[in-house]
Amino acid sequence: MTPFVAEIIGTMLLILLGNGVVANVLLKNTKGNNAGWIVITTAWAFAVFVGVTVAGPYSGAHINPAVTLGLAIAGKFAWAQVPMYILAQMIGAVLGAILVWLTYKDHYAETEDSGAILATFSTGPAIRKPVSNMLTEIIGTFVLVFTVFYITGANLEQEGAFLPIGLGSVGALPVALLVWGIGLSLGGPTGYAINPARDLGPRLAHAILPIKNKGDNDWGYAWIPVIAPLIGAAIAAYLSFFIS
Asked: How far is CA 113 from CA 28, 212, 214, in A?
């Protein structure tokens, strides 16, 4: 599997399971209807675990443009590969959202709340204040990317040699726990996009899919979960220079 394909598949699985739990909780007449925030944050953590486990051996499992950018700024990833990785992540995010729609198609048809429908694709603020929403996403992504530097930099001693753990299968669990913690602690104000592809890709899918009662795409907010995570990642990367 090439890194390009790995990033597509890893991101697709991330969105399929992550947005899938939101659909299960919010859409009408599902088995998981109204299951709550703990279910959503837990399943998103599992979604990260699956995506990282599958893509890790082939691409390093960034599955997030903010992670790709942060690693590149920190000198841990080649700038020449950044556009290819981000394109793959966007493709995977769109595909994952389409699979969620196919899985819950009958429940979308019965759901009249356009806001709930959009929430199964993209994030939105609990209180719409752009500056505060930006800051929330910057902080959440900073925690994600800054901690990832320590996970990718970890070593395992074996017979006197230090072996890099990285973001492969061994690194999947700590990354999943990291995202779970961010969701539980910092996810309330904006739904913790912390990933431009996670929000923009499914929002594009929402725009093109024939969904009854879907309403608009809230493009007025859409720039925040794209720009803010990139800023948070950049801050994390630059800070790493001073404390490494």
From this structure: 9, 10, 8
d(CA 19, CA 9): 15
Say how far apart CA 23 and CA 82 lie, in whole Å.
31
Go through the chain and tell me how many residues it has.
Answer: 244
Across 13-64, the runs of DSSP E, i.e. the strands, are none
Q: What are phi and psi of 161, to 5 degrees?
A: -105, 145
Determine the 3-state secondary structure of 156 from DSSP.
strand
Give the structural domain span for 55: 3-243
Report yes or no: 80 and 214 within 8 Å, Cβ to Cβ.
no
Distance CA 58, CA 6 (A): 6
Q: Total domain count for the chain? A: 1
Read off the tokens for 191. Answer: 């739904």
Which residue numbers in the chain have pLDDT < 70? Answer: 152-171, 244
Cα distance between residue 90 and residue 95, in whole Å: 9
* 3-class state of residue 161 by DSSP: strand
pLDDT digits (tens, 9 = 90+) for 106-152: 999 999 999 999 999 999 999 999 999 999 999 999 999 999 888 85
Q: Look up residue 198 and give its two tokens.
A: 């996670």
What distance in Å separates the CA atoms of residue 41 and residue 187, rounded to the nearest whole number? Answer: 9
User: For residues 132 and 190, is the Cβ–Cβ distance under 8 A?
Assistant: no
pLDDT score at 236 = 97
CATH of the domain at 222: 1.20.1080.10
